[in-house]
């Protein structure tokens, strides 16, 4: 069940969305993710629109098409054109539309939790943790974080985000 703060944040997002036609600013999917204490880099660049049900936390984020890329050569990620699940402060649950290649298998990422300065990604029976600083930059479809363009890939201190390998895998 969402807390009062989460419900308030979602309500504000819906109100802003309702007034979008009247010239009011609308939060992007990336700003909404940040309002739930997640870094923008858990979504790739290119989210065209989203919807969010304030009462339940149910969300959908839409890309222009499916998207895949490698990070640091060791992780391959794939996003479908629609990513859905439930969002709460520090927790994404019942995710669909995001998968990671582990050895020769594609596994669905079903949950993401923020634990202080780490993000824990779960594929159901196993999980892996990564430092949150790996997700300050949005990866780009096709090339991840190793794109030749430098447009918005640099963060404020001029560093590019890198997902450092951390094969810390644990069973539930």
Automatic annotation (TrEMBL):
Keywords: Signal. InterPro entries: At5g01610-like (IPR036758), DUF538 (IPR007493). Residues 1-25 form the signal peptide. It holds the Pfam family DUF538. PANTHER family: F22D16.19 PROTEIN (PTHR31676:SF156), T31J12.3 PROTEIN-RELATED (PTHR31676). This is Uncharacterized protein.
């Amino acid at each position: 069940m969402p807390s009062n703060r989460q419900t308030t944040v979602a309500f504000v997002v819906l109100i802003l969305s309702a007034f979008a036609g009247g010239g009011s600013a609308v939060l992007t999917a990336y700003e909404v993710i940040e309002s739930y204490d997640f870094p923008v880099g858990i979504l790739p660049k290119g989210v065209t629109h989203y919807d969010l049900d304030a009462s339940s936390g149910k969300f959908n984020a839409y890309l222009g098409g499916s998207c895949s890329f490698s990070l640091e050569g060791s992780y391959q990620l794939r996003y479908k054109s629609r990513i859905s699940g439930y969002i709460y402060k520090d927790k994404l649950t019942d995710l669909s539309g995001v998968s990671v290649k582990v050895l020769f298998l594609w596994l669905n990422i079903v949950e993401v939790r923020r634990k202080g300065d780490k993000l824990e990604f779960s594929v159901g029976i196993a999980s892996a943790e990564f430092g949150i600083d790996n997700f300050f930059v949005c990866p780009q479809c096709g090339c991840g974080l190793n794109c030749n363009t430098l447009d918005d890939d640099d963060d404020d201190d001029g560093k590019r985000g890198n997902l450092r390998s951390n094969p810390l895998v644990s069973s539930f």
